[in-house]
């Protein structure tokens, strides 16, 4: 089977390849030069200012020379509690560089970065976009010495452990059962597209990226659109700190994800599929490309799949460049079209006008894998897992203060208490569901069940795929500030409520951490959260401060002490480290 270009389809405008061309230029030159931007501006007929704006939007693009080896150290909250500070110091000591700059020999450049999808193996870093996990001071010394001696990061990097800690008993696993490529496609192709969507509807499958929108509604809406071509997009931009389930699926079962996309293409009448892969997972690109090639070689991609005339489907991978907000589906579409990854105004659903303004479905990695397995095993077998109202299983990324961090495939209906027990949680106290944009709960809710009829039965508590566990030794304010800093940096800034609200609430949380906040500050946090939730363009602004609001309710005693200290004039402190935090940035 002839495979099309791995980087773009022939009918796609060259503008949509801008991010790919910027990556190529940066790999060639070490950074994106002004000359490169001027050349792209002329060849694409796009203003230089717009090109510069696109480059500046993405975290991993550089407009100044970096170094032979570029190191990104994860600074998310789990990394912070697992030894981030020691690793940061060790990297500076061993490389002779400081963070956000490079050493004198242009050998090493150091940068902080948000979650790289390794929360089960922290502290972790990317070196030349290859993963190095479970870092300690000695390992840092050995890695840097090897790089100085001429070793390549690709040759000495770690192969991240998938850490699948729990599967349902009685062989009830869905995602990690033995896999044979093409079985799901064969079963689906024996049905009509409408029947396939009917099975997805019967399964009650909802989006596994966290929004939990019914999958069949997207598919049916896109199927009914008359415009062509149609697209199937796999959202593999897993950027939520604490979440790494998609990484494990892509690393261990890439075929099931690809097969789910092909089945989706058959169901809606699409001929093209695109996997939007986050830049932090660039080390997975070769595995994905090899799997795609195997599917072409075996007649599962290309023309007349399964011998069905007109059942054509091609797939390519689109690399992201570092932006959390691109996990929002319309921001992802903008990025795919070679633009800043800013969310669109919601005049149309992507199923109406998505990629290149054509009908498009966008689903999460886990969602596509679930479809492939469902079609392979049969809908009745699928429905036998889980509980009424929540059939099937769910993948949970579990990290933090637990002895067994990793992936837990649970049948819907498992309680928080049982999950924590299986993970051997250490004095669990503060439990974060679904990453910073999710919700926190206390152990008062440990008997709640993870299902659509209990813990997830309301819009305010959703478990999209991760639990981060923190014990009583962890300061709640440090957790909240880490989340707040993440959103402050990751907001695209296009919405005034999100741009201003993130900044103001972050300052309020700092004030509270220093014992200076009053009840009036709490009320202002509530007001800004309401404004952001009602008027922000995308999910980042609408959910950024779910956790602080719920924390104030769930851990009222802790926050009452903070407010009482301020009311009594106690705990007023000067933070020297914060006061000089901008010194390196502004010193001459």
Features:
588 residues; five-stranded mixed β-sheet; globular; alpha/beta; 42% helix; six-stranded mixed β-sheet
Model description:
- This protein is of the alpha/beta class and 588 residues long.
- Helices cover 42% and strands 14% of the residues.
- The protein has 25 helices and 17 strands.
- The strands form four sheets. It has a six-stranded mixed sheet. A five-stranded mixed sheet has the order 2-3-1-4-5, with helices on one face. The protein has a four-stranded parallel sheet with strand order 9-8-7-10, with helices on both faces.
- Strand 13 and strand 14 (406-411) form a beta hairpin.
- The longest helix is centred in the last third of the chain and has 18 residues, at 496-513.
- The chain is globular, with a radius of gyration of 24 Å.
- The protein starts with 17 loop residues before the first helix and ends with a helix.
- The mean pLDDT is 91.
